[in-house]
Amino acid sequence: MPKLTGFISDIQRFSLHDGPGIRTTVYLKGCIMRCPWCHNPEAIDPKPTLAFYAGQCIGCQACAQVCEPGAIVFRDGERHFDAVACTNCFRCVSVCPAQALVRIGKSMSTEEVMAVIHADLDYYQASGGGVTLSGGEPLLQASFAYSLLEACQEENIDTAIESNLSIPFAALEPLLVHINRIYCDIKIMDEQKHLEATGLSNRQLLANLEQLALRKIPLVIRTPLIPGWTDQDDNIQQIARWIHEHCPNATYELLNYNAFARAKYAPIDLPYTLGDIKPLTADRVQALTDLARSEQVTVIGPK
């Protein structure tokens, strides 16, 4: 019988922000949302992604010489790339001596991923950490996610997933027996604005959260504070009120905008449409935190 495999964009060891303790975060490729502030744009496409890091290019033109469809050409010493012509053969990656070209995404079996996870068992045990499945959207690869979560729990490794929860509950429900906690976003409460920002309605997300709350699954609900998109008083207040009414045992976390992801877009030939926006000030984050707490929810953040 062939081994079950998933498509992975990255595995990050010693992660401190994806659950309690020291964790290994496994990023599964593919997402159905299109948030303009996405922190992992390299994980959106379910297929392998070609990244070009211009600062490492030495101009040897080896990539252009092996590119049969002519997607890579050099004119006057400057590299030009035609994403439409590219067939994702990745021959250019194999001949780049400077590693300026990188393939993001590879198929891995459950056993191969678990071998990486096993390397840090002592750290999980000492810190109360474990393994988090993230993405992209890990539930798009539900069978593989189930396999990984089951393998972790067979070895008493704490498990978590980070999901947008925008798939039918029937796809999520079988995994719950192997999940210790779930992290998800409510980005925007207004359905139409959520659709305009992410490409999806928030109805499925909210319905799934209600089901998880009924099953008493530990939940951390987050809102990324994106200036002009999610950081309005009424949005935060509406989200906090909804959490109080429908997921009263959940924890709410406000995450300030971080421009770190901006540098990820150009290498994979995607535009970063948010421009030069800045994180919220500490005072503004505090004000939104206080507003959320006024709705009687447990908020992670400034006191």
The strand order across the widest sheet is 7-1-2-8-9-10-11-12-13
Number of DSSP helices? 10
What structural class do helix, strand and pairing data support? alpha/beta
End-to-end C-alpha gap:
54 Å
Please state the CA-atom Rg, rounded to the nearest Å.
21 Å
> Quick check: average pLDDT?
95
User: Which runs of at least 5 residues are low in confidence (pLDDT < 50)?
Assistant: none
Largest sheet: 9 strands, mixed
Number of strands: 13
Helix content: 25-40%
- As a percent range, the share of strand residues is 15-25%
Order of helices and strands: EEEHEEHEEHHEHEHEHHEHEHE
Using the alpha-carbon principal axes, give the shape.
Answer: globular
How would you portray this structure in words?
It is globular and about 60 Å long. Helix 9 runs parallel beside helix 10. The strands form three sheets. Strands 7-1-2-8-9-10-11-12-13 form a nine-stranded mixed sheet. A two-stranded antiparallel sheet has the order 3-6. Helix content is 29%, strand content 22%. The chain has helices at residues 62-66, 91-95, 110-118, 121-127, 142-154, 169-172, 191-198, 203-214, 233-246, 282-293, and strands spanning 5-15, 23-28, 49-52, 72-75, 78-81, 101-104, 106-109, 130-134, 158-162, 181-185, 219-225, 251-256, 298-300. Strand 1 (5-15) and strand 2 (23-28) form a beta hairpin. 36% of the residues are buried. The protein has ten helices and 13 strands. The model has no long low-confidence stretch (mean pLDDT 95). The N and C termini lie far apart (54 Å). The chain has 303 residues and is an alpha/beta fold.
